[in-house]
Amino acid sequence: MPATAASRSTITALVTGASSGIGAALAALMAADGINLVITARRGPETEAMAADWRQRHGVDVSVIPLDLARPGAARELVVEIDQRGLAIDYLVNNAGFGTYGHFAVTSVTETEELLRLNVESLTILTRLLLPGIIARRGKIMNVASTAAFQPGPHMAVYYASKAYVLHFSEALAYELGDSGVSVTSFCPGATKSGFQQRARMQKAAMLNMVKMPSSEEVARAAWQAMRAGQGVVVPGLLNWLLSRSVRFAPRRLVTWGSALVTGPGGK
């Protein structure tokens, strides 16, 4: 049912990478809870269609800003557009990201630059530029990392390293903001049914046949619950949690070897 004027939230959340996968599912949950949205993704038409549906069904305000955050300077462009529209961001969800698959020596230099710009640079710059307003409104931040953040990842070396950055940056930021009333959630899902595997061209990776992957909707529910509760580092799923902890007690060489078995060829 659409939110009534009396019950409509005054909170606005920015969700990046909101056209599909976890980002779209998370934005849908926020809209259902009456949170106003600013959503951005490369694919404008799909995002516009979702926004229209959420406005009609939930009575929330949804602003769509089509943008490729892997472009140089795109994070600053996004913040300028938000300011020009007179929007104030209370919740920030840095969800946009992608991976590349293959030995680093033969991967595309251009794709590597775009991956680092999206997964690391844009996330960092968006957080920095929006942080003063989020602090003033005692809001929330969620950075979507990955179980990849806890170990090296041969065959996906740059992606794994980028997620380690997201995890460590988020933990440090959470400490710095400890007395501000702002929570910083580092959400670390495992492999999820989404468009990520196709984008990374990793359909033959062994990990995809080792366990049953949860849906984007299941993972998004865990993410939204964690963000609302102001939790810090969150690894959804018992197996994912156990694996993220086990690497602390194993020799680094063994951890890398085990990771290579999971990421390496072995799919159908």
Spell out the blueprint of helices and strands.
Blueprint: E1 12-16, H1 21-32, E2 36-41, H2 44-58, E3 62-66, H3 74-84, E4 91-94, H4 109-136, E5 140-144, H5 157-176, E6 183-187, H6 196-200, H7 216-229, E7 233-234, H8 238-246, H9 252-263
Parallel strand pairs: 1-2, 1-4, 2-3, 4-5, 5-6, 6-7
Describe what this molecule looks like in 3D.
The protein is α/β, with parallel strands linked by helices and 268 residues long. It has helices at residues 21-32, 44-58, 74-84, 109-136, 157-176, 196-200, 216-229, 238-246, 252-263, and strands at residues 12-16, 36-41, 62-66, 91-94, 140-144, 183-187, 233-234. A 7-stranded parallel beta sheet has the order 3-2-1-4-5-6-7, with helices on both faces. α5 links the parallel β5 (140-144) and β6 (183-187). α1 runs parallel beside α2 and α3 (74-84) runs parallel beside α4. The longest helix has 28 residues, at 109-136. The protein is globular, with a radius of gyration of 18 Å. Residues 1-7 have low confidence and may be disordered.
> What does the overall shape look like?
globular
The computed structural class is alpha/beta
Into which percentage range does the β-strand content fall? 5-15%
What is the class in the CATH system? Alpha Beta
- Walk across the major sheet and give the strand order: 3-2-1-4-5-6-7
Radius of gyration from the alpha-carbon trace, in angstroms = 18 Å
CATH homology superfamily name: NAD(P)-binding Rossmann-like Domain
Helix content: 40-55%
CATH fold node name: Rossmann fold
- Count of distinct structural domains: 1
Order of helices and strands: EHEHEHEHEHEHHEHH
Number of strands: 7
- The CATH architecture designation is 3-Layer(aba) Sandwich
Q: Which whole number gives the mean pLDDT?
A: 87
Oligomer: single chain
User: Termini, distance in Å?
Assistant: 43 Å
Tally of alpha and pi helices: 9
